[in-house]
Amino acid sequence: MNFIAKNCPTFDGPTNKLEYDCLHDVFKDLIQKLLDKLLKPMGIKEEEFKEACDQAYNSPETKELIAELRAIDDFNYFKNLMMNTYNQIYKIIEKQEEEVKSEEQVRYIIMYRKRTM
Question: Is the pTM of this model over 0.70?
Answer without folding.
Answer: no
